[in-house]
Amino acid sequence: MIELPNKSPLYLQVRDQIVAGIAAGDWPVGDALPSEFELAQKLGVSQGTVRKGLDALVAEGVLIRRQGIGTFIADAPDAWGSAELLDTYGVALTTVIELLACSRVHASDEVAAALGLRRGIQVYSIKRLIRVGADAFGVEEICVPSDQFEGLDARRIKQAGGNPRGVFLKQFGLRLLEGTPRLRTVLAEREVARLLQLEVDFPLLESIRVAQTLDGRKIEWSRLLCRTDRYAYRPNCDA
Amino acid sequence: MIELPNKSPLYLQVRDQIVAGIAAGDWPVGDALPSEFELAQKLGVSQGTVRKGLDALVAEGVLIRRQGIGTFIADAPDAWGSAELLDTYGVALTTVIELLACSRVHASDEVAAALGLRRGIQVYSIKRLIRVGADAFGVEEICVPSDQFEGLDARRIKQAGGNPRGVFLKQFGLRLLEGTPRLRTVLAEREVARLLQLEVDFPLLESIRVAQTLDGRKIEWSRLLCRTDRYAYRPNCDA
DNA sequence: GAGTGGTCTAGACCACAAA
DNA sequence: TTGTGGTCTAGACCACTCA
């Protein structure tokens, strides 16, 4: 291990080295890391210390361990995938996501405040429709600062299966960790009502989350508006 | 360690031994466990293994470690305490809880189904009002099977500072772990509207959670109904 | 100084998956 | 059979708290 006058425990330094390696693209998504013993030798620590360092990243969903095989870089799960949708009897339902638009707009005051940006700065706004069967369940808007994701567009997102997180990770090298949602009930405005085929003022559930990078920069704001008359929403917040 | 033909790793067996010890009341709330080395000797394993066994319980909030001092049995946090309440600008607010009632009733079908009980069996129903300042923010109902908590009443809950979880733990030896909430928007019915000083059909946020014991028995159903026009609710689900 | 949690090592062995 | 993750040990030292 490179010996800096660093007070933090060795295993955290190991963690940071791995994070740096991932950010530098040493191991693309799906690749295996060197084995725990190799890493230990390379970093000059014992296998147990490497293991403890990797534990945190496994817990954060960045790495996936497979016994007998290796430790792999995890793919970026869809933000919506971190939630569950249940019918009125508690049975989980599967959803389909439809990309509606990806455009460059001025950040609303709310988004700018949540991400610590200057008011009115440019952000990419990604809108998606979430369906369960033929039913429109909710609409989601994702905002990210445009200067960090130059050239983001609908085509790229569609190529990644409609998953913006996949693009953020593979094209821009940024992995995001979900924050805890802020929940409110709101009444449907015109555009949302139209998309969900509901009347205006239909009561909806609003879930707002801010996601951050591995090193703690808040970088993605998202809002889900969904109907909960036929379904229940379970957010699965770990963060 | 008592050698049963047990396939599970030693550190999980250690965890289970500690859980059993806690359930048996070996160490009341606030007490220190024996030191890691003492436990290691007593159970015939190494300190590292004991440590790993305790890690899980610390993560679950059952134990609290204090460096240089010892490892302690954690108190039962109030169920409501696992959530946060924010104003419209994201600033956290403090709440006051008022116990409304504790009564013995027949379980609704919904509660019975969620807890795996026979329909119509008796449960204790605890109702509480959550205030922020002078404002009524929400009402909460907690249901637990009456046969597990014989003699529960408002007096006992008040003695524990209005925290039912404290009573469950200290009087009945049961520690509960919070589950992930199921969320819906609902319209206020008459009684709830009256308690919250809102008109009937005011849109509210409903959060339903099931909590379980350390060994996985679902034992507590709770429903929070709250207004989110002035506040945002952040559930903090770990489970 | 004594006792606690917290970290680290070197080496061992097991469980599992693949060639 | 080989290489991987997964567990465990014995012993060492550090960091912190308290008497």
Automatic annotation (TrEMBL), chains A, B:
Matching SUPFAM superfamilies: Chorismate lyase-like, Winged helix' DNA-binding domain
Q: Which Pfam families match?
A: GntR, UTRA
Gene3D superfamilies from the UniProt entry = Chorismate lyase-like, Winged helix-like DNA-binding domain superfamily/Winged helix DNA-binding domain
Keyword vocabulary terms for this entry: DNA-binding, Transcription, Transcription regulation
Q: Which InterPro entries match?
A: Bact_HTH_transcr_reg, Chorismate_lyase_/UTRA_dom_sf, Tscrpt_reg_HTH_GntR, UTRA, WH-like_DNA-bd_sf, WH_DNA-bd_sf
Q: Which residues form the HTH gntR-type domain?
A: 8-76
Q: What is this protein called?
A: GntR family transcriptional regulator
- Organism of this sequence: Parachitinimonas caeni
